[in-house]
Structure formats: structure tokens, C-alpha cells
Amino acid sequence: xxxxxxxxxxxxxxxxxxxxxxxxxxxxxxxxxxxxxxxxxxxxxxxxxxxxxxxxxxxxxxxxxxxxxxxxxxxxxxxxxxxxxxxxxxxxxxxxxxxxxxxxxxxxxxxxxxxxxxxxxxxxxxxxxxxxxxxxxxxxxxxxxxxxxxxxxxxxxxxxxxxxxxxxxxxxxxxxxxxxxxxxxxxxxxxxxxxxxxxxxxxxxxxxxxxxxxxxxxxxxxxxxxxxxxxxxxxxxxxxxxxxxxxxxxxxxxxxxxxx
Length: 260
Ligand code: SF4
Known about the structure:
Distance between the termini: 47 Å
Shape: globular
Bound molecules: iron/sulfur cluster
Number of strands: 8
CATH superfamily of the largest domain: Aldolase class I
Strand content: 5-15%
């Protein structure tokens, strides 16, 4: 079996030589995140000493976007929402369009609460995403067919592991560092010792037993385990996306109707 992996990185060291080395080891794609156009991103994401990281990241993306699949996640919250189009414009003007955009509405975090006041209410989620894709298309980005992504994630597949430097294995990266959610441990001999089967894929799949009649099931799979925990439903709670998915479908249907 061929070993493959992806990397989530801030992109500051994602040079062509690093990418080429990682490709030889099985790299399939990288995920880099931006928090807005230069001024907004650099206010939030800077190096020790205060220098902003925006131009370093964009310089690297320009050089590596044709070598490796890049998922460019764009964090969106109420404080940078109005500047998202400016970011798309900046990327496009620098020729960075050979990336897969991944708009991400920032959610609260188990450990850090400083973003809570910036959250976009879930009732607005569909509209924000729809507007995002409209603008992306306008600025020359490809709008993927699966704007509605399949809901299957790393938490649904036991062979897909997120492991920290100590060998602790988590259901997904959102839980990394939280001892309550260590589901297994990678041993020195390469074996995996299961510690909490209740956090494993089999038990996650049971979450959607109440969803079998839902038309959005393949796009949702009962929702995100991390958001279920954050919203107090617990690890095995349903994080229902029906309202958002239905609104998004309606908005897209209306848009397609206009184009005819
Ligand atoms: S949208 Fe709600 S009902 Fe439908 S699959 Fe997701 S959690 Fe289940």
C-alpha cells in the first residue's frame, strides 16, 4: 500500500524545494489558510517580531500552485466579511487561481474564545457562502462542482489518522491536544493501541441513524463531531446542517434559473 499524506501549514515555509521533497514522500495536497487581504491577514497572522506573513505566503503559493494541489482555506467572520472580495482580487491579480478555495466560516474553539464575538450566525451561513462563490467565479477562480462537500471526514475512517508528536491519535485535527479525545495511541513498533473505541469511526457512523430520510445525508453525515461538542450536543450528537444546506440549494437554484 502506498503511503500518502496531506499537510496543513501556514505556508510560510512552503517553498518549491520543500514541496518537491514532500511530493517524493507521498504528499497529495497542502492546505494553507488566509484570514483576509494583506492588511487584515497581517494584523492577525504575523511572525515573532510583528512582520506580517501575507506576502511570504502568497510568494510561496505563486511558486508551488502548479506543483502540488493547494487547498486555500479562507477564514471568514463578521470582522473580515466585507474584505473577502478584496482578498480574491489580490490573489487573482497575482495569478494565484490554480488553487481550490475553501471558504470557512470561523466557529468557536474549545480552547480559545477570542473569536466568539466575530462569529457569523448560522442563519447567515448559506448567504455568505453563496456570495463567496459568486465573487470567486467573477475573479477567475474555478467553482468546484462539489461546493456542497461530501460530509465524510477523517472521523468516519479509522485508517485515516491524525497523530500528534507524542503518538496520540485523535478523531480529527480539531481535537488535537485535548486528552479527552485521544482515541488511540501509535506505539513505537508501528502498532495502534485503541484506547477509546467510542470515539472511533464505527461509533461516529451511528450518529446519523436519525438522518436516513434526509436528502442532504451524503453532504452532511450527521454533521461535524467538533461542532457537535462545541454546541453542547456531545461527541455523538447530531450537528444538523439542514437549514444551511436547504437555503444554499435554494439560492443556487434561483441563480441557475436567472442564467437560463
Ligand atoms: S442535515 Fe440534519 S438530518 Fe440531514 S444528514 Fe445532516 S444532520 Fe442529518
